[in-house]
Amino acid sequence: MLSLQPFPSNPNPTFLNPPFKPPPHPQTLKPPNPYPKSRHAPISSVLQWNRKPELAGETPRVVVITSGKGGVGKTTTTANVGLSLARLGFFVVAIDADVGLRNLDLLLGLENRVNYTVVEVLNGDCRLDQALVRDKRWSNFELLCISKPRSKLPIGFGGKALVWLVDALKAREERSPDFILIDCPAGIDAGFITAITPANEAVLVTTPDITSLRDADRVTGLLECDGIRDIKMIVNRVRTDMIKGEDMMSVLDVQEMLGLPLLGVIPEDSEVIRSTNRGYPLVLNKPPTLAGLAFEQAAWRLVEQDSMKAVMVEEEPKKRVKTMSVVTLLPSESQELYDAMPEDGCLSLCKRDLCKSCCNLGLTVHWRA
Ligand code: ADP
Ligand code: MG
Questions:
Q1: Does residue 271 register a pLDDT over 50?
Q2: Residue 32 Cα, ligand 1 centroid: separation in angstroms?
């Protein structure tokens, strides 16, 4: 027979407060330096101070992330902007409409959790909510894949089917999304037409090179023909050193060529590749990186239907400062702060010595000597 032992009314205090044991190596108590070999000042602040972005426009906002050329960063943008929106508190569904070359699940680290896709939903093999993969880090972010990797666009799957899907997502009583992001395949064939059909707005991703720009221009025309008037662009893989050496087109040049409002400028950053391979989107990195901050700012502008100004790359400065922190202010305030920066301040330009050039990336730098 079981005998129930009463819990001791006066438990041994050492049970609650175990005696202090010195660690075997006292030096291990020293906190590790998070920036071991870096000579750069850490980026200390990510989110804008004092306020949250105000959601403009009717929800859900259905945004297609597109480009003409492949490999310019559509999927990277979808993952990072999508998770930034989720971190800002919005409900987000990201649809991977790149059927043959699906890889949004990989970038998000969700590949092992995709059991069902839209194909099974349409065949009646599962419910829509079973095909939605909820991110464990941010539960208000969900991924939806159209089909299994390496499969072709299912026969009969076209714009109408995607519109039905978007309507079904809108009609959900719980977890009705604020944003539906559609990761578009490259090119301008059937997959592209399908992906843009339900969208009301588009984010055109381009790199500052002539092939990408020519394709982007063509895609802009097609989006407009489809009735999508709200088109903003993200210029990705920008290298300010190359712009200075006149080996790369400046963001200003890109904007003049495409004539589109600028949602964000993302620097070339090896951290993007690292985060892609780890399945851990860049915007979740701690400490944050410039490219991560730039994606976050682009998400902020998307929420508020805002855009940023491209500014000229300035001369290399002379004086440097020891510590500084990035304060990402309202995009509309960036220009004022930029103009107000004293000439003898740190305006240096490189990866993490934050400077006036950061304004070119839409970041506003709060600096102190
Ligand atoms: P797309 O979806 O347009 O085909 P991806 O988002 O898959 O393009 O990106 C293609 C490759 O470019 C990936 O390996 C990605 O890591 C890399 N990449 C994208 N943006 C950047 C960046 N800003 N800096 C460095 N590498 C990048
Ligand atoms: Mg892609």
A1: yes
A2: 32
